[in-house]
Every structure is written in C-alpha cells, then in structure tokens.
Amino acid sequence: MADVRHPRGLLDTSVLIDLDRLERSSLPADLAIGALSLAELAAGPHATKDAIERARRQDRLQRIEAMFEPLPFDSVAARAYGRIYAAPQR
Length: 90
Hints:
Layout: E1 8-11, H1 13-17, E2 30-33, H2 35-43, H3 51-67, H4 75-86
Parallel strand pairs: 1-2
C-alpha cells in the first residue's frame, strides 16, 4: 500500500526541531503549529548553558515564528488533549 500524503497536519515540537532536516514531501501539504509547541521552542534557548546551542535554538525559534501563526490552545483544546491522552494505545 502506497503512502498517502495528508492534506493538513499539526506539527509537534519534535518535528519543528527537525523541520529543516525533513523531506518536505514527507509532511502534510498544509502545515500548522500550536501555541504550546511555540512555547516549548521559546523555552529552549533558556534551557541550555551552552552559548552555541542557545544561539541555535534562538535561530530555530525565530525561523518558526516567521513561518507560522500558531493555533491557540484554549479550554476546548485542553479537553481534547485529555481525551487523546486517555485513549488506549494501539
């Protein structure tokens, strides 16, 4: 069965960290990010004492901010997260 490229997708923080190394064709055609992922990326530069890594993380944050307008994380999203978290793993 051939892989099908999804038309839309919400990228999580781990994908955003590796975004410049991923094949564009392996990602959905229309990309979005959530406010929580942006918050995690914004915390990243502060989470290291290494100046080179801090600069790398700051650069990544600024590039992502320029590329995306994050989707808000509101109470509806929080409840949906709870349901997803509680769902049985396959």
